[in-house]
């Protein structure tokens, strides 16, 4: 019988000999750990690869080093079954996997808006050093258009003699907080191919996903790369679009949620991603719209994506607005004031604080002299890792104790369920900014809270009324 070590594999030919697909997933962060566990769940032999030894040790012990609902169970189960293992040894990876998914980071470079592709290049270089037979490299990381074509040239130049390596791009659209569901039942699968090689293998990998009537889009490398950044740019634009209207209603009065509901009923527009708030953050939307502008400018189209600069600016102004509202509510003096910050992650159901509007606002209030107490159900440790000087506490009650002002900046269910009476008993002053528009304002105002949120006209003296915002009389 053939063992996984001694059988020779002809990945692209009809002489294929293997029984089970052997997959590596390179980069075991939010995307890669999810993809690796889900691939193992589909029944394949999977190797998770990283350069971070602490992360590898944790994953190998079945302990997920970040928060993602449903993923710990999948990780434990598949590690225990032996289908999923982890290593930093590329020789092992090249010898024991035929399909290599690249899921390393592509963060914004420190010196520009462009994506840092050094991790992608590093991973491909390491593979090329060791692959001696047939292999398929499948990019999943979000990259500037043209990257896959460049990598293909690198492969042609640097691959070992006798190897036969194809490249494909298979962008990922999962959302943090829904990563497992989005992987096992995505809205669509997109594969960009160079010359058709790899299509059969990708179809085999995703056979049980495709069986659920998931649309499959087979295209070229450039289109696949662009689909991903176009999707994120569209989502970011939708959020900034509603936040631009929030700026208008904050000035003239009006109700931003009603406006969003009303336009959202139009099926061509849709209600999703029209929630005004403190804006978008995270490891993807902000850096992806910047990298897209940078790449398109590099291609000579210096004006084409200019609107994304506006999208970015509108988004960043949401944070300014909360900081100035907070100052305004506290008598234009933040120094020495006690501010309770509820929520520090960029969105609920995640512990990710990358480019988090909530953390940014908390830090800016601290830098202006306020004492800031922070509570997040999952994000405290990551936030403290980036900015240790805030006062991180273990419950919303503790964060709110003696607070002069309370801010809800991430819409965790725990904060949606806050009781205005209970919170009113611990704070020093019943003042609140609902940065995500999730609290029932009339009910809170009835309990004596002075509060406001995105899209609301707010004047400190008039807003004490339980009737809500007072429109400006023109
Ligand atoms: N986080 C998300 O929800 C999604 C992320 N993406 C894209 O996926 C990519 C990865 O994102 P995240 O998982 O969030 O990043 P991450 O920063 O959580 O994980 C990246 C991992 O790659 C590892 N790594 C770096 N160089 C390596 C190398 N040479 N060999 C092996 N491992 C290496 C790092 O140590 C790290 O563990 C990015 O391009 C991102 O835009 C796409 C869709 C969803
Ligand atoms: O490329 C990626 O990494 C991923 O980026 C986003 O997913 P994610 O960053 O997990 O989070 P989203 O749910 O898109 O939220 C992004 C940000 O927008 C904010 N948002 C979202 C919706 C909305 O109506 N208003 C709003 O302010 C959220 O609070 C959050 O800060 C995309 O939704 C995924 O499809 C994509 O795969």
UniProtKB/TrEMBL annotation:
Q: What are the binding positions for NAD(+) in this chain?
A: 50, 55, 106, 142, 176, 287, 354
UniProt cross-references to SMART domains, sorted A to Z: UDPG_MGDP_dh_C
Query: What are the catalytic residues?
Result: 284 (nucleophile)
Write down the top EC class of this protein. oxidoreductase
A Gene Ontology biological process in which this protein takes part is: UDP-glucuronate biosynthetic process
The record ties this protein, via Pfam families, to: UDPG_MGDP_dh, UDPG_MGDP_dh_C, UDPG_MGDP_dh_N
* Pathway linked to the protein: Nucleotide-sugar biosynthesis; UDP-alpha-D-glucuronate biosynthesis; UDP-alpha-D-glucuronate from UDP-alpha-D-glucose: step 1/1
Catalytic reactions on record: UDP-alpha-D-glucose + 2 NAD(+) + H2O = UDP-alpha-D-glucuronate + 2 NADH + 3 H(+)
The UDP-glucose/GDP-mannose dehydrogenase C-terminal domain extends over 340-441
Q: Read off the InterPro entries from this record.
A: 6-PGluconate_DH-like_C_sf, NAD(P)-bd_dom_sf, UDP-Glc/GDP-Man, UDP-Glc/GDP-Man_DH_C, UDP-Glc/GDP-Man_DH_C_sf, UDP-Glc/GDP-Man_DH_dimer, UDP-Glc/GDP-Man_DH_N, UDPglc_DH_bac
Any GO molecular function: UDP-glucose 6-dehydrogenase activity
Q: Which family does it belong to?
A: Belongs to the UDP-glucose/GDP-mannose dehydrogenase family.
Q: What is this protein called?
A: UDP-glucose 6-dehydrogenase
**Organism expressing this protein natively:** Glutamicibacter mishrai
Source species taxonomy:
Bacteria, Bacillati, Actinomycetota, Actinomycetes, Micrococcales
